[in-house]
């Protein structure tokens, strides 16, 4: 365990159909790669995308993931929200391992 702490915000957001949505993920240390997921109530997490160090922006259909300048935060943008987009969005990170 490396002690990395990740915080997500906003924790809850109510949208109208067709509105845009943005959520953030902040870390206490640098992200080397970052995965975004969505989970519907009672369901399993569904993989959305991976951001790797060196790739600042990635777009998948109506979703755009971005790293912040310092690589300690990321954002996920969803355009034109639909009913099927309802759920909990979260990120997970793997940190680099150095072997000697």
**DSSP strand count:** 8
Number of helices: 0
CATH architecture: Sandwich
Radius of gyration over C-alpha positions, nearest whole angstrom: 14 Å
In whole angstroms, the N-to-C terminal distance is 18 Å
Protein name: Ig-like domain-containing protein
Pfam families: V-set
Subcellular location: Cell membrane
Organism: Bos indicus x Bos taurus
Please specify the SSE layout and strand pairing.
Blueprint: E1 6-9, E2 21-27, E3 33-39, E4 46-52, E5 57-60, E6 63-67, E7 73-78, E8 88-94
Antiparallel strand pairs: 1-2, 2-7, 3-4, 3-8, 5-6, 6-7
Keywords: Cell membrane, Disulfide bond, Glycoprotein, Immunity, Membrane, Signal
Domain Ig-like: 4-100
Organism: Bos indicus x Bos taurus
Report on this model:
The chain is 0% helix and 47% strand. The protein is mainly beta. The protein has one domain: Immunoglobulin-like.
Short description:
This protein has no helices and eight strands. It is mainly beta.
Main attributes of the structure:
100 residues; mainly beta; Immunoglobulin-like; three-stranded antiparallel β-sheet; disordered C terminus
């Amino acid at each position: 365990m490396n002690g990395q702490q990740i915080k997500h915000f906003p924790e809850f957001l109510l949208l109208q159909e067709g509105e845009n949505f943005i959520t953030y993920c902040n870390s206490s240390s640098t992200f080397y790669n970052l995965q975004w997921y969505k989970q519907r109530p009672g369901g399993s997490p569904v993989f959305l995308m991976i951001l790797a160090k060196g790739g600042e922006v990635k777009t998948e259909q109506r979703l755009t993931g971005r790293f912040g300048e310092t690589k300690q935060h990321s954002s996920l943008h969803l355009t034109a929200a639909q009913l099927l987009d309802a759920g909990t969005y979260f990120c997970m990170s793997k940190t680099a391992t150095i072997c000697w």
